## 1
Amino acid sequence: MALDAQQTRGFTHTWPTSLEKSWAKLVKVTKMVKKLGQDDPRRIIHSLKVGFALALVLLLQQFHPSFYGFGANIIWAVITVVLVLEFSVGATLGKGLNRMLATLLAGALGVAIHRIATLSGEKGKVVLSSTFVIVIAATATFMRFFPRLKARYDYGLVIFMLTFCMVSLSDNTEDELWKMAYERLLTIIIGSCIAIMVCICICPVWVGEDLHNQITGSIEKLADFLEGFGDDYFKNSENTEAVDDEPFLHRYKSVLSSKSSEQTMAVLARWEPCHGRFRFRHPWKQYLEIGKLLRLCAYKIEALSVYLLHPKEVWYYHRNII
């Protein structure tokens, strides 16, 4: 009886504690989700756009009679929407065009290789198919190491290899293979077009504009530092303590690690059509040059900021030299 009473009391104490922990985790997750949406409300809109695009595929299948002829291949339209529809217009256009072009080329090449391999007999078919797969897959993989190809066409090269292997190694007859290739290509084109239209027509996110704003923000951060440095270095001579809590001392540091994001945005911006003040063949490469100069300036500013972290006695010496 005593043991049962202890177990009952232990369960009574444990249950509220577990409930409180679960509630605390739920509150924490809710705050994280709220902060994520408040930092960039476009993320919420993008999530709704993905759901809307998938709903369009479903409605098109339900109300368009020709979609019933695709059978199981309609799933490729769904997969295409999920993979192609990205946050920005440039990324969506790049992926969509890469996927459509790679599927077309790989499908045609795969059917041709399958035809040639079939004419050589059963044993010859295995040897030729394996040889072509090795050569083409190795070539496409090696092309991914070229920086320019990897930056703009890496996704297309991956889709090319996958589609070619699926078609060329298929056991279907030639007529069945043609039908399968046609249906998959058409469903992928439909999925890509739906993803592109939804991304452009509903609250579009232009990565070129984001790149412009990021470069502008970097210039403002460096300007804020130089202005704040002049005020604290030359005017505040009464304070003999080191300055470490000023916001301008840390705001410029984000410029030091901006190279990767700027390069990615510049590549994606080249896929985007004319929009707003950004016309066709906008000089996106010049933004990279400006970003490079800004990072060089930020490194010099980082060295300059050391003087604000020392006592004012050190300041007087360097100020007299200046």
## 2
Amino acid sequence: MGNILKCFTGEDDHGDDDYYRPSSGARYGLQAGSDHGHGPSPYVDVDQPAAASRPHHDVVSLLQDLLYFESTSMVPEALRQHVTSSKKAQVKWYRNILEAYNNMRPQPKTPEEAAQLITTALSRIQRADLLGILSFYNLPIPFPLPTVASSASSDHPPSSLPEGVQFVLNTLPVHHRCIGDGDGFSAYVDTADPRESANVALEVHEMVIDRTQARTHRDYQKARALLRSLDEAGYNRIINISGEEILAKKYRIRMRGIDAPELEMTYGKESKDALVKLIGGKRVTIHVYGLDQFGRYVGDIYCDNVFVQERMLKSGHAWHFKTYDKRPEFAQWEREARAAHRGLWASDNPEKPWDWRREQRSSNIQVY
């Protein structure tokens, strides 16, 4: 880290100049119940809340923070007003930035160079958080922002996708409450995904930052209002397995080529339960072919190396939707289930879901 110290003063020897002044530590906050110079360290632990002030934002502030992080593993307390991820995540960020700084030649001295350092080191974090940390140091936003290849989508390069597939979604784990019936569900995609990050509107980023600041100031009414606005815009806050809150885009999915009994129909609950067992709590890959008349994304679903529609048809939990899908293997999988009297085919004459919906609509009951 000697190179960081040189950046504060240049290559010349300035004698008694301080490289890191204790006064800048105010940005890390005071530990609750401690006094200056007495008792525990006056700097908060990364997991403790504290009030903080930030007198200035610039390249020198970034370098000071990196120097202090190297010796204490503490991050600036005021950063939480600009980003949404946890302190634990922030520690990982500064570790990555510090490593990138030590490997960078020459070291950054201008705002543009410092911004490039951060965006390169943090290319895999959420776009909103990346913009937040650049804003925290008052650094310019490089254009275009760097993107990384998605490891999940690398298994399905464009050349190997079936004809008609418009794009691929790699989702967060599907919550069982987001599964409506045996052929439809809602899924969320992390906005850190390269495909998503480029499509998040600036207004959404601003709502996320405003909500974080509202919660910091205990203005929970405003925070709830902003959360509703995010939901109306098609986004939500999701807690991942690491306990970090992330921004995710919501997609309503209609499984292509099958039609399952509606929940109100005979065998509707069993069909839904079968889909919950296949994808509930798991990440899925969706090959999207387009939108249906209700605004749902129609696609083929893959989970744990299983083609979900195939499993639903073979187990007798859905019909082949011949009106919209002519794939012969789908017809064959349905015939197998019929012959073995599996699932809904245990009945001699199960009601067809499209007939049931037609009857509901004729009675002015809205169904999808």
## 3
Amino acid sequence: ADGFSLEKAKMNSVSEIEYPRKILDYMEGFLVSKTLFAACELGVFDFLQAGPPRSAAEVAGGLKTSVDGMERLLAACVGLQLLHAHTQNGEALYSNTELSNIYLTRTSPKSLYHSIQYNSQTIYLCWHYLTDAVREGRNQNEKAFGVSSCDLFDALYRSDEEMRKFMQLMNSVWNICGRDVVTAFDLSPFKTIYDLGGCSGALAKLCVREYPESMVTIFDLPKVVHTAREHFVSSEERRISFHEGDFFKDPLPEADLYILARILHDWTNTRSLELLTKVYRACKPGGGVLLIEALLNEDRSGPLTTQLYSLNMLVQTEGRERTPSEYIGLMATAGFTDIRVQRTGKIYDAILGSYHKRS
């Protein structure tokens, strides 16, 4: 059996050398992303959401595209298992898969449409300059968008439209992953919660749903707060309030718990420690801080998604993805104790640190 296994491994190795399928897949991986992006941007999944299966000509007519181009796009989506196809009277008819109905249509509560748009229209453009980012060790907002990289969020929020796109991205991410991170630890003892950089309020809404005795304040820049009030958080959400400010420049109000969700990965260790120290000084005794981040393995061997996210942080921000021990080190230096890590099994994990008054 051992000899057979060795021989089989040898054959596979020879086969890979003769036909490097993995490298070819990686080389052309952007074709998959752009196919998904185009289908979403054109409205293919929305068009096929209701009603009977449609022909390529019907989809093309409804979406005002060429029939030839749409035939090719729909066939590729079938190959990617994003659409079903069956033949009737010699003609292919297309319909959404269950997964596409849930995640790729705009009206679905779990829609990733806005995440896909942001990846297509913003991140993809930044990644055109990945080689430069690696060579220079800094983000590429100036080359990609013609905006200064001096102030990170001036670049990320370079227009009202771009700010809304980013907020919609955050909203769709937390609609998928949010409940796992806000329930990774029992947060019910924390009655006053500040979500620093709370953006669209998606996590705040999940917090008040899971912890009925808690009040959550979204602390963010004035223009973000204004947009969140107008487009994302209903005035009927009585246990969610807002605080306008810059968490680096302005005082932090006292609270039981501060949530930093996908915040520290934007910043250098120095800026991250500055913010954590500020949080520690504002925290009530017995309170704490909850970090929500994509965590690298301690030996940095994975997960692949987080390794790629860290490259994205290089291209877009001043920060990086980190290991649990790196975050624990920053939190401990700021003064937090009893630091615990909880993996969720999904992209984002949770780290909870406690504040105990120093004697």
## 4
Amino acid sequence: MSGVKTKYSINTWKLTESRTSGNRIKFQHSLNVTGDINTGACESSYPKTASWNRSSMDCCRWDGVACDGFTGHVIGFGLECGRLEGTIHPNSSLFQLGHLQTLDLSSMIFLVPIFRRVGQLVSLAHLNLSYSSLQGRIPLEISRLSKLISLDLSDDRNLLSDQFGFQDALSRVTKVRGYSLSQVNISSSMPMNVSSSSSLRYLDLGDTNLRGDLPESIFLLPNLETLRLSGNNLTVSFPKFNWSSSYSLRELDLSDSNITGGLPSSFGSLKALKLVRLSECNLVGPIPESIRNLSQITQLDLSNNHFRKQNS
């Protein structure tokens, strides 16, 4: 039944990390394995921790744990879609895993925030806490993750960002290739460091209450492949000349934005585009003939705009 929680077990794992014991982790917490989880991103789910105590004393063999084959250090920890709800305590030695590179706790239900200790994971490159019912503000501690490459907090709808604090935090994380923050309440203008990051490949800030002018520099990022900014209060102006992302951009979604100046002929230079969503963008003027050059396109949505026919 929807909304009915089924508790299968309550487990507490107490494991030690030491060179003499095979680099096992001491991970102390209490989580409920439940049948009623946030399944937003899960095609399938199962209790990953159910076999931890039975399968092996070597945590590197456990489901969801990955270790370096040479050093034995824990470098990956993923309990995504694991039917878990509860608390990871601030003193959990999860936050002492100094070699951890990937942490995926998506589609769990956290009863208290875990953010403030995440900043201790100084080797972290990939952090996914999406669909996890997180609440409160995104803390500045995230700025300590200088090696971060991807950040996914999508669909954590009760998360808020302090406008200047959030932008300051992002300004210190310079290697990120992908941000997925859709549904997070950012409520500010586009962070300038994001729109000028040459390493950026993926950006999803849909439905985040962004406002103001979208910096044109975002269309000049040479490696950008996906740009999703739908459902915000943004004013957009496309470059009049060829875009630097003309050979990389594959997906563009600016639905429900205010696009000024119409579609320029330079739009046809985006030959890698496969998906375009520009519905309800107050577009006016003619649709440029150059749009025929988009030979890879599989989805094109220009509905609910104010186009007029080309003059013959």
